[in-house]
């Protein structure tokens, strides 16, 4: 019995009128935890009751503290009939269980009802007294910190990174239980909300136990997902990276022991001398290269198909570096070997952590769902994921890498077919972060590859490349080999040298599929998947070339299944890495060169493409230093082969399976006879350019822009389209899909036009093709026939001030600079000055003084951002994870303004509840915020709609940089990335 | 293919002031899109009509959701649903409560009842203000009226505190409430030349001089009603016209003071008895509610029109009334 939970109900306000006769409400509150319930007195005839209750005390196991939410129900007392529920508040106790997070939850929280939405607010105070539990066989894991942030949280230092943790729990979905036929929609929704809250608590506790077992104290990059499998159940699963984090003591942040032995930033080889090298007139861009290889593996079951992608290309280990690398690899291997899955959900790393990047690895598998018979043993689901992870691991090995970073998992479900996907970036890591004691024995290896280009160097050996690629010596250090393109799922490392600015690149694809059932359906999907991946990849590659860039970061490929179509959407941020060779152009050839008019057609096309490339170069400010092209072809001299170290035996097995047939076709020569190619070119050229003053990317930091202002605005946008004609062709669908995405972007640009110059960061698109049954609100037979396209990007807008005025007091704040500067911290006084406005600094400053509304205590402004940081501010405390799940249902859809009105208010309500909970924890911002799930179902004929939303993030306290005695020059000097970016600013 | 659902929600609520004005003016989405298109936003940012429409719809929805809160502006500051910076809140409120001069002129002094609301379509047709906008403005008047009716203390201050309005707007509302409460007739043809601001000025004067609150701030009653006692006292003025000696005395005093100061002196002298009789009769009748309602029409008919036909200037009028008042004070009866 190691915990005492105390709750006090203070007051309510803005309550709805429950008694029509008096226009008032006789409210009282039930406070429930586990099986214990307390009640307050009835506060008669008031819409603003003052209960001022005693402390309700619950004596509970800490296991329950982790699993159960505190449930507060506000009711209207009725003498003659049953009491009417006004609404509920679920409070996650978890943040109170860690001594470093929040200590009290206190504030106004919205009272929520699944049918009516927010109905007034309630003021509560919640505290927990924890007793130390020394029981070694405990089932709880109190004190393990959870972070959604996919980098080491700003006020911590990673002493040790333990690695991958995963867990999943399954249950029956209350929505599909027999009892649902007789209970009210409200009861059913509440049962579901409560169950999911319980399951996430349990999941977190179990993962916490695993972390404790590994010796860690925190989970970073915690990613929790729900699979609503319908009839077959409800799966809640989570992955994360276990770490041992040390809290940084303010003032000593500059001294980070682990990194202290890093060599001073080696801006090693100035590019100028290279120009004098003899072969400077070597043949330009059009070197054929085959960057992609694919494998339709002959998997054990015919239902599971696992296309994989290895993107990026091979590199040789320079002769001198070879043995060192071997040694390094061995060391790392031993450190990682004992781990089942050397995966990391992080996308952003401490300097020196990432040694080399191989390329993107991904695996997909199509499964048929059936009822989960025994919720306590979710073996099937576990086995499915195990299978996929094994595959990812072997792909990584094939790329000569021992680890996978930026790892994520996702599912898409359509009736009984489920596609499980996992993707990540194969990489070599510095083993010292994974070793006990963390002695910096290996730090000298870093010297071999300077941080600004080292990660581009290829981890596998040149003579045993997993796929054909074109290699050159690194354009930055000239010592090691780099591929011609690099695709990754991680964020751009802060120390990377970049030329020009980055931009969002999207590949969109639609494929029709016959309606089918069961295994036939699954097989059909399996067969389509590799083609979709291939085409998405080609599209990405072409668009990348068109923008004259050579690397993709933050690549997310989403494939969703509908009843009669498959949708693929790949988003990434394109960048020109200075270390990689300049990309070639795009050449168009026709198959029948005899025809004159045809030739002309081709040449006009070619001209348009060349013009676009030239224009994009200007737009993204890409003016690489003219370097010599030294093409190091893939043919390998035999004499060297013997010297090569083969990373693993498995890798060679994998290699033999590689299907290189695509390699025959040159990726960058588009043959126009091919209808696909015509389509590609069309889609290339129809991508509307961004309006002036806008930048967009899907990573945390926009490459090439460093002068952020603190004005930022997060928004969510949802669109649903109904396709008029269900019998469309692939091409027609593609066009529609592309237009939809483009329109959505255009719409965003228009809305935000008053904020230019601005940058859309962390643009995150999600598409879905809801199946017919899902469109229905439950218990009604389906009547719809046309498919619905459904896109929801969740994104953020960060204002970037580029004008003179702001530059003078705006300082670069990107990547690691927040944690590495050594200012004394100001006291985290939240109330003092943090009334932020989404306006640019300059304006908000002048407004702050005029703010004086004479009414009550103003609501704390809570910022929300999907970034892991807030530009020009410092996060001083992490208060705990926010993980909320809401259901909203209506039976008066038209009255609420139709589907748009319904969803609009629901999203606004969700934001409001997140803000309120953060404010109650004492925070003033949510970082790494994401809306993981947004499932929308409607039945306009019945005037009904239902929506499920799951959001998560980290509640934090931040203070403005300017509130501290920050001296800009200090930041400048302390920041390694400025040097790399010099050419661009 | 059709857009089924299209929603955009920001953590900080994004609002376009221009669209807000369209919404307040009662434009339909289609009309607003048309006007915006003509305004040239499209060329500015290379957007399509579709984009504009989606944006307009979004904004309209936001405003509709906010409207409930705008009905009790104090709630806007401590509600949790929308995160709106304080200066934007102030803008939203101020604009929401701003009214059309033309419209208010039509309903000024009328009972703010359902019956009046039913006739708003006529008002809309007459003024060219959309019916929707008319209804909003009418409901605003009614809402302010209802809240203030129950309150004690100075009228303007009450309105400003409860509705967070600027001083100017609060004064205008005070005038509207005052007129509605006393049901002053303002719709007669003869009064048409007067603007709302003219009446608002009168209301201001009446509130500060003729109500209970005006005389004694400590009194619990409020500014909305004319002070009964004062009106009763006005009856005593009758002596000014009934007592012939007093009338002559008064006239000679005024004339002595005015002589040579104005071109209209001859007319003033000739008409003094008529004018004085007119003014005093109006004052003496004010204990009757019916006559209170006709206060302005009586003033125009009995006093302003005769003066105007004699081509008095505004200066003449001021001079005349000043001396008329001052001279009365000198009279023995009033000492």
TrEMBL record, chain A:
InterPro entries the record matches: C2_C2CD5, C2_dom, C2_domain_sf, C2CD5, C2CD5_C, C2CD5_YbjQ-like_dom, C2CD5_YbjQ-rel_dom
Organism of this sequence: Hucho hucho
Annotated signal peptide: none
Region of interest called Disordered, as start-end residue ranges on this chain: 254-316, 815-849
Gene3D superfamilies assigned to the protein according to its UniProt record, in alphabetical order: C2 domain
Name of the protein this chain belongs to: C2 domain-containing protein 5
GO biological process: insulin receptor signaling pathway; intracellular protein transmembrane transport; positive regulation of D-glucose transmembrane transport; positive regulation of protein targeting to membrane; positive regulation of vesicle fusion; protein localization to plasma membrane
Biased segments, Low complexity type: 289-306
GO molecular function, one term: calcium-dependent phospholipid binding
Compartments reported by the entry: Cell membrane; Cell projection, Ruffle; Cytoplasm, Cell cortex; Cytoplasmic vesicle membrane
Basic and acidic residues compositional bias, start-end: 254-264
Stretches assigned to the C2 domain: 1-109
Iron-sulfur among keywords: no
Keyword terms: Calcium, Cell membrane, Cell projection, Cytoplasm, Cytoplasmic vesicle, Lipid-binding, Membrane, Metal-binding, Protein transport, Transport
Matching PANTHER family: C2 DOMAIN-CONTAINING PROTEIN 5 (PTHR37412)
Automatic annotation (TrEMBL), chain B:
Pfam families: FIBP (PF05427)
GO annotations of cellular component type: nucleus
Protein name (database record): Fibroblast growth factor (acidic) intracellular binding protein a
One MF term in the entry's GO annotations: fibroblast growth factor binding
Example GO BP: platelet aggregation
PANTHER family: ACIDIC FIBROBLAST GROWTH FACTOR INTRACELLULAR BINDING PROTEIN (PTHR13223), ACIDIC FIBROBLAST GROWTH FACTOR INTRACELLULAR-BINDING PROTEIN (PTHR13223:SF2)
């Amino acid at each position: 019995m190691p915990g005492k939970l105390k709750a006090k109900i203070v007051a309510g306000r803005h309550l709805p009128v429950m008694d029509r006769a008096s226009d008032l409400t006789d409210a009282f509150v039930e406070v429930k935890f586990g099986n214990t319930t307390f009640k307050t007195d009835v506060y008669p005839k008031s819409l603003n009751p003052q209960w001022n209750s005693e402390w309700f005390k619950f004596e509970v196991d800490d296991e329950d503290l982790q699993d159960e939410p505190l449930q507060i129900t506000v009711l209207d007392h009725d003498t003659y009939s049953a009491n009417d529920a006004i609404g509920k508040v679920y409070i996650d106790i978890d943040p109170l269980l860690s001594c470093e997070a929040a200590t009290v939850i206190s504030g106004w929280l919205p009272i929520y009802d699944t049918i009516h939405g927010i109905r007034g607010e309630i003021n509560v105070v919640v505290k927990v007294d924890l007793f130390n539990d020394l029981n070694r066989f405990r089932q709880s894991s109190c004190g393990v910190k959870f972070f959604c942030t996919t980098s080491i949280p700003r006020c911590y230092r990673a002493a040790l990174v333990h690695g991958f943790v995963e867990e999943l729990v399954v249950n029956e979905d209350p929505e599909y239980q027999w009892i649902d036929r007789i209970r009210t929609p409200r009861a059913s929704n509440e049962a579901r909300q409560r169950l999911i809250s319980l399951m996430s608590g349990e999941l977190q506790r179990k993962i916490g136990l695993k972390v404790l077992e590994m010796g860690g104290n925190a989970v970073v990059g915690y990613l929790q997902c729900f699979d609503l499998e319908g009839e077959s159940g409800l799966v809640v699963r989570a992955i994360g990276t276990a770490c041992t984090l040390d809290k940084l003591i303010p003032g000593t942040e500059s001294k980070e022991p682990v990194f202290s032995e890093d060599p001073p930033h080696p801006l090693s080889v100035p590019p100028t001398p290279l120009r004098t090298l003899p072969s400077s007139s070597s043949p330009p861009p059009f070197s054929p290269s085959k960057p992609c290889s694919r494998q339709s593996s002959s998997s054990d079951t015919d239902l599971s198909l696992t296309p994989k992608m290895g993107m990026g290309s091979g590199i040789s280990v320079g002769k001198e570096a070879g043995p060192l690398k071997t040694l390094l690899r061995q060391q790392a291997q031993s450190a990682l070997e004992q781990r089942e899955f050397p995966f990391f959900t992080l996308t952003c790393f401490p300097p020196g952590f990432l040694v080399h990047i191989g390329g993107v690895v991904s695996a997909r598998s199509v499964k048929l769902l059936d009822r989960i018979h025994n919720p306590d043993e979710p073996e099937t689901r576990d086995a499915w994921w195990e299978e996929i992870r094994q595959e990812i691991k072997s792909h990584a090995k094939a790329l000569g890498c021992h680890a996978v970073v930026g790892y994520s998992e996702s599912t898409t479900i359509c009736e009984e077919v489920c596609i499980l996907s996992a993707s990540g970036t194969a990489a070599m890591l510095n083993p010292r972060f994974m070793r006990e004691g963390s002695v910096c024995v290996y730090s000298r290896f870093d010297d071999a590859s300077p941080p600004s280009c080292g990660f581009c160097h290829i981890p596998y050996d040149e003579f045993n490349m997993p796929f054909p690629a074109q290699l050159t010596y690194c354009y930055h250090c000239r010592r090691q080999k780099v591929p011609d393109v690099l695709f990754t799922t991680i964020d751009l490392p802060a120390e990377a040298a970049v030329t020009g600015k980055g931009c969002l690149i999207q590949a969109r694809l639609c494929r029709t599929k016959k309606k089918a059932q069961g295994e036939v359906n699954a097989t059909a999907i399996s067969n389509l998947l590799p083609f979709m991946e291939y085409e998405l990849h080609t599209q990405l590659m072409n668009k990348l070339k068109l923008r004259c860039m050579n690397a993709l970061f933050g690549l997310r490929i989403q494939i969703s299944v509908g009843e009669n179509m498959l949708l693929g959407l790949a988003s990434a941020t394109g960048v020109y890495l200075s270390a990689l060779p300049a990309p070639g152009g795009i050449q168009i050839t026709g198959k029948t060169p005899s025809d004159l008019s045809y030739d002309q057609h081709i040449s006009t096309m070619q001209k348009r493409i060349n013009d676009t490339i030239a224009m994009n170069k200007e737009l993204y400010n890409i003016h690489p230093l003219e370097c010599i092209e030294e093409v190091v072809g893939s043919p390998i001299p035999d004499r060297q082969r013997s010297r090569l170290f083969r990373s693993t035996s498995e890798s060679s097995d994998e290699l033999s399976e590689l299907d290189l047939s695509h390699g025959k076709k040159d990726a960058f020569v588009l043959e126009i006879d091919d209808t696909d190619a015509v389509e590609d070119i069309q889609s290339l050229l129809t991508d509307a350019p961004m309006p002036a003053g806008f930048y967009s990317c899907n990573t945390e930091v926009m490459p090439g822009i460093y002068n952020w202002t603190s004005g930022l605005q997060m928004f969510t946008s949802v669109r649903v389209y109904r396709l008029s004609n269900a019998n469309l062709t692939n091409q027609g669908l593609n066009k529609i899909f592309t237009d939809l995405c483009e329109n959505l972007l255009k719409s965003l640009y228009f809305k935000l036009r008053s904020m230019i110059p601005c940058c859309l960061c962390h643009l995150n698109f999600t598409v879905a093709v809801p199946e017919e049954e899902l469109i229905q609100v439950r218990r009604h037979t389906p009547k719809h026939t046309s498919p619905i396209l459904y896109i929801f990007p969740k994104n953020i807008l960060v204002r970037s001030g580029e004008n003179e005025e702001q530059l003078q007091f705006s300082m670069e704040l990107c990547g690691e600079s927040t944690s590495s500067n050594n200012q004394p911290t100001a006291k985290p006084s939240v109330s003092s000055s943090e009334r932020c406005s989404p306006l640019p600094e300059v304006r908000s400053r002048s407004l702050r003084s005029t703010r004086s509304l004479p009414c009550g205590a103003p609501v704390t402004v809570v910022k929300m951002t999907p970034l892991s940081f807030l530009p020009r501010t410092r996060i001083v405390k992490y208060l705990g994870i926010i993980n909320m799940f809401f259901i909203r249902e209506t039976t008066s859809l038209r009255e609420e303004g139709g589907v748009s009105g319904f969803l609009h208010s629901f999203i606004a309500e969700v934001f409001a509840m997140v803000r309120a909970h953060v404010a109650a924890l004492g925070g003033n911002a949510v970082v790494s915020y994401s809306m993981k799930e947004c499932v929308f179902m409607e039945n306009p004929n019945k005037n009904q709609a239902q929506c499920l939303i799951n959001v998560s993030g980290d509640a934090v306290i931040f203070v403005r940089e300017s509130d501290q005695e920050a001296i800009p020059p200090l930041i400048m000097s302390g920041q390694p990335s400025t040097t790399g970016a010099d050419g661009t600013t | 293919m059709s857009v089924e659902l299209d929603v955009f929600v920001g953590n900080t609520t994004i609002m376009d002031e221009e669209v807000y004005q369209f919404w307040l003016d009662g434009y339909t989405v289609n009309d607003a899109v048309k006007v915006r298109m003509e305004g040239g936003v499209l060329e500015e940012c290379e957007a399509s009509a579709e984009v504009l429409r989606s944006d307009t719809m979004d904004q309209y929805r936001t405003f509709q959701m906010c409207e409930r809160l705008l009905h009790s502006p104090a709630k806007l500051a401590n509600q949790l649903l929308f995160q709106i910076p304080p200066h934007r809140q102030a803008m939203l409120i101020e604009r929401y409560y701003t009214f059309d001069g033309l419209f208010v002129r039509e309903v000024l002094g009328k009972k703010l009842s359902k019956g009046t609301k039913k006739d708003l379509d006529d008002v809309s047709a007459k003024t060219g203000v959309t019916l929707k906008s008319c209804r909003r403005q009418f409901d605003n008047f009614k809402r302010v009226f209802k809240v203030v009716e129950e309150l004690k203390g100075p009228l303007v201050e009450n309105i400003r505190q409860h509705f967070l309005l600027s001083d100017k707007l609060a004064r205008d509302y005070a005038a509207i409430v005052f007129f509605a409460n006393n049901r002053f007739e303002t719709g007669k043809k003869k009064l048409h030349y007067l603007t709302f601001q003219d009446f608002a000025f009168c209301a201001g004067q009446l509130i500060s001089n003729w109500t209970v609150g005006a005389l004694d701030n400590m009194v619990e009653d409020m500014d909305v009603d004319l002070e009964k006692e004062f009106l009763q006292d006005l009856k005593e003025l009758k002596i000014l016209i009934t007592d012939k000696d007093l009338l002559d005395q008064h006239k000679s005093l005024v004339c002595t003071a005015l002589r040579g100061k104005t071109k209209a002196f001859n007319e003033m002298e000739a008409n003094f008895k008529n004018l004085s009789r007119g003014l005093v009769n109006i004052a003496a009748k004010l204990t009757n509610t019916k006559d209170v309602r006709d206060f302005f029409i009586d003033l125009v008919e009995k006093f302003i029109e005769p003066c105007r036909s004699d081509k008095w200037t505004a200066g003449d009028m001021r001079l005349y009334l000043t001396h008329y008042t001052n001279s009365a004070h000198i009279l023995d009866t009033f000492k």
